[in-house]
């Protein structure tokens, strides 16, 4: 879990992902289209990816990816992020974390 926290705090927006996951791709695209440049950590390309996946599950991510952190705090998975996008809350969170300036 320390490794997840360390990675999650490296940038305003961090997405834990798997390169073969279509929902992960959709979430990454959502951020890119808003002008956000997240740190994307592909856990299937990390030698300790299984440990990270386990830690994300312990934090409450189900499924483990995509797991989105904004401002170092776990926001949630695709469903949560999409809900925040639809109700307008995501943009404010991104601004507050310094990921968006507009």
From TrEMBL:
<keyword id="KW-0963">Cytoplasm</keyword>
<keyword id="KW-0676">Redox-active center</keyword>
<dbReference type="InterPro" id="IPR002109">
    <property type="entry name" value="Glutaredoxin"/>
</dbReference>
<dbReference type="InterPro" id="IPR014025">
    <property type="entry name" value="Glutaredoxin_subgr"/>
</dbReference>
<dbReference type="Pfam" id="PF00462">
    <property type="entry name" value="Glutaredoxin"/>
</dbReference>
<comment type="similarity">
    <text>Belongs to the glutaredoxin family. CC-type subfamily.</text>
</comment>
<protein>
    <submittedName>
        <fullName>Monothiol glutaredoxin-S10</fullName>
    </submittedName>
</protein>
<dbReference type="GO" id="GO:0005737">
    <property type="term" value="C:cytoplasm"/>
</dbReference>
<dbReference type="InterPro" id="IPR036249">
    <property type="entry name" value="Thioredoxin-like_sf"/>
</dbReference>
<dbReference type="InterPro" id="IPR011905">
    <property type="entry name" value="GlrX-like_pln_2"/>
</dbReference>
<feature type="domain" description="Glutaredoxin">
    <location>
        <begin position="13"/>
        <end position="75"/>
    </location>
</feature>
